[in-house]
Recover the amino acids of this structure.
């Protein structure tokens, strides 16, 4: 037997009620059983062929991935709607002056920040499918009210509420990945929905270009919010109907398939979903170095993000392109991001061992090159600077891979949702800082913003290396401990899985290994 957490499981694990050490494995008790534990227990001794497991995986993919794909694309479009509307009179229509527009990007992130820990708690306690679907409807409603805002105070409040509601999506999707997919399957699936950032950039640019040709009716900037908001409300209703809460209760799977779906994921040694909040896991989260490495990593990664979201149209215009050009010239950047995410996700799935941190390092190095060119190239080299901006779209690959560090490398459901909340707190901090580096007094050069991008990418790269060294050394120590005891037995393998279903953290479960 092997402790490789990315191996394919082709036989349901046995569930010994009295396995060695199971009764005294952590502060968790039998009252903290996984919500899918009954299905897991009923799968005792069930034999399944690789073909059967692949059939279940295919059904899961066809149901889950399209919903995540479209929802994630919409949340990206919706939060960046001010970018597409900024060149069509948004500032004039809402009476923005000076740094007001920069603050809209930061205020969205304040809402996102304040919602992180409440959202994480609710994602743990409530049916996750229904909760995320209602959130989608909620932010669609908020978005279609944006045209009613006629002042900075009004649109700032609107953006805060939008950020507060959208804060559920990223951590919620990280949790969904760990509920439905094995560690080896997660990178490609995560990148499939995350690549919609690139698709949204292309699609949003086309919508923005089309809106630019409207000559009658409301002011052009209002149409962006009305179109995106209406689509989100409709899609939220669809999601409410079709997005399941748990593998063990999913109606699109047959009873036997539900058991296989649970047992597939149980092999991650992380359980599936547990609604019991455990304080000892909260304390462990605060003491775990990975938590704060991920926080710093996310902060550094997101400082440059505003250049690729809220300020993209303004930056492209500053290079010397016309209004319509600011829209369609964002499409290649979206294509770069899309291709980087899909190729990176495929590589990390095809070669699952020790590829994720390397992928992050490569993507981040390309971003450093792009930011360095933005700092160093002369103002007259508009095409060179535009290509440099497109290179920075590799940042989506690096950040999305850091999300798999939570979905694959953190066990204990309370700890997982809290670690995700801390990571996205860093995400918010970086996105709050980023827009403020675009000083109105520096327009159109924005030199400070480009330097901040370079610093942010460099900090992210350093943290990826630190995280890799920490996890590699931890795996090495556990392997050495196992070597002293002898080859891993089948009983120890099963016990490691059982501990995951009893909500034991990765630090307490000595049979757990980090995915690098």
């Amino acid at each position: 037997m092997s402790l490789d957490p990315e191996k394919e499981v082709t036989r349901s694990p046995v569930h010994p009620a009295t396995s060695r050490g199971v009764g005294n494995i952590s502060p968790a008790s039998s009252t903290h059983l996984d919500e899918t534990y009954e299905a897991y227990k009923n799968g005792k001794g069930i034999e399944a062929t690789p073909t059967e497991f692949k059939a279940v995986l295919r059904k899961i993919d066809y149901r889950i991935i399209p919903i995540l794909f479209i929802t994630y694309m919409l949340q990206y479009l919706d939060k960046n709607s001010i970018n597409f509307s900024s060149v069509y009179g948004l500032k004039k229509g809402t009476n923005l002056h000076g740094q007001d527009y920069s603050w809209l990007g930061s205020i969205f992130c304040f809402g996102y920040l304040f919602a992180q820990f409440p959202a994480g708690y609710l994602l743990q306690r409530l049916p996750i499918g229904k909760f995320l679907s209602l959130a989608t409807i909620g932010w669609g409603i908020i978005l279609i009210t944006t045209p009613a805002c006629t002042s900075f105070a009004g649109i700032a409040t609107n953006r805060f509420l939008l950020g507060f509601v959208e804060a559920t999506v990223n951590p919620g999707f990280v949790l969904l990945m760990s509920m439905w997919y094995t560690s080896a399957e997660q990178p490609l699936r995560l990148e499939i929905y995350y690549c919609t950032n690139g698709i949204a950039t292309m699609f949003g640019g086309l919508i923005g270009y089309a809106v630019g040709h409207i000559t009658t009716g409301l002011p052009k900037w209002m149409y962006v919010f009305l179109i995106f908001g209406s689509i989100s409300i409709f899609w939220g209703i669809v999601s409410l109907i079709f997005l399941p809460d748990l593998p063990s209760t999913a109606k699109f799977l047959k009873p036997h398939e539900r058991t296989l779906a649970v047992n597939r994921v149980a092999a991650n040694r992380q359980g599936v979903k547990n609604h019991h909040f455990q304080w000892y896991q909260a304390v462990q989260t605060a003491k775990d170095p990975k938590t704060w490495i991920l926080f710093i990593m996310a902060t550094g990664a997101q400082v440059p993000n505003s250049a690729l979201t809220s300020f993209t149209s303004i930056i492209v215009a500053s290079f010397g392109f016309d209004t319509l050009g600011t829209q369609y010239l964002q499409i290649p950047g979206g294509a770069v991001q899309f291709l980087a995410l899909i190729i990176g996700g495929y590589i990390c799935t095809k070669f699952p061992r020790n590829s994720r941190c390397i992928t992050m390092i490569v993507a981040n190095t390309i971003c450093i090159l792009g930011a360095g060119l933005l700092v160093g190239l002369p103002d007259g080299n508009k095409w060179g600077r535009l290509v440099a901006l497109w290179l920075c779209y590799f940042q989506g690959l690096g950040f999305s891979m850091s999300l798999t560090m939570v979905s694959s490398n953190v066990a204990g459901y309370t700890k997982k949702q809290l670690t995700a909340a801390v990571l996205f707190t860093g995400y918010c901090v970086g996105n709050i800082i980023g827009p403020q580096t675009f000083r109105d007094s520096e327009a159109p050069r924005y030199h400070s913003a480009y330097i901040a991008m370079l610093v942010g990418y460099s900090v992210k790269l350093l943290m990826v290396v630190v995280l890799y060294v920490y996890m590699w050394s931890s795996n090495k120590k556990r392997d050495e401990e196992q070597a002293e005891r002898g080859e891993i037995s089948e009983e120890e393998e099963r016990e490691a899985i059982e501990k995951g279903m009893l909500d034991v953290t990765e630090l307490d479960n000595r049979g757990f290994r980090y995915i690098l």
